[in-house]
Amino acid sequence: MGSKKFDISQITDYLYISVYPVSRNAADLQTLGIGLILNTYHFPLAPVFRRPPFHSLWLPSADHPWFPMSLNKLQRGVEAALEVIALGKPVLSNCHAGRHRSVALACCILIARGYSASEAMRLVKQKRPSADPDIWYIKKRILQYATLYQPDTRPVL
Question: Which long-range contacts does 125-130 make (Cβ < 8 Å, 24+ apart)?
Answer without folding.
Answer: 127/9, 127/10, 127/11, 128/9, 128/11, 128/17, 128/98, 128/103, 130/7, 130/97, 130/98, 130/99
